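Quick start: read one record
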Amino acid sequence: MQLISNEVEIHANTEQVLDFISTPSNIEKILPVDKISDFKSDESMCSFKVQGGIIITLVQNGREENAKLFLKSGEKSPFPFSLTIHAEPTNNGTKGHIEFNGEVNAFLKMMVEKPLSALFNYMSDKLKDQF
């Protein structure tokens, strides 16, 4: 299953945006406070519990200089997935979006597609608000 968030315009250069999101503790700042609990982070990963009790773990998985940041699911995540944070320079800063690729069956897709789309759109908007 592939999901792509809304594209947002961020008033910061791509390096600033990717440096911000590369710090796992900063991910908490772009998550919906009312739907997330038990946030934990270290230098290379973060984990949090979403409504319904599912634990999501995000592990850094590389970076394409000033263009993309790669994250992948950790061992506690309910299914394997990857997240790519896209950042493209513009005249006013950075244009970007979040791309999700997950290995989910048809039944699980029906359950998670809408909430995940809403989450990634929220995260994109909150990232814009950080700058």
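The two ends are 30 Å apart (CA to CA).
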